[in-house]
Specification:
Blueprint (H helix, E strand, L loop, with lengths): L1 H16 L4 E2 L4 E4 L6 E6 L5 E5 L23
Length: about 80
């Protein structure tokens, strides 16, 4: 029983100490690989991505038309 309490105490302390880097307005977490159902649009640092659930991403990324130049403002 004492061993169980010791293991429980150590695990709770380690869980408190381990900080998770948050991103995307605290809705995302920095990870090396995103879980199923998560997307990433920005990078946290060189080796991690900001993984956010799709319900928190309020815009759609559409494929750009590469034949049109950036300065083109003609209405179709």
């Amino acid at each position: 029983m004492k061993l169980f309490l010791l293991v429980l105490t150590v695990s709770l302390v380690l869980a408190q100490v381990t900080s998770v880097m948050k991103c995307w307005g605290k809705s995302g977490r920095c990870r090396t690989t995103c879980k199923n159902g998560e997307v990433f649009h920005i990078l946290c640092n060189v080796e991690t991505k900001c993984c956010v659930q799709q319900k928190y991403v309020h815009f759609r990324v559409e494929a750009s038309n590469t034949t049109r130049s950036l300065g083109s403002t003609s209405a179709d």
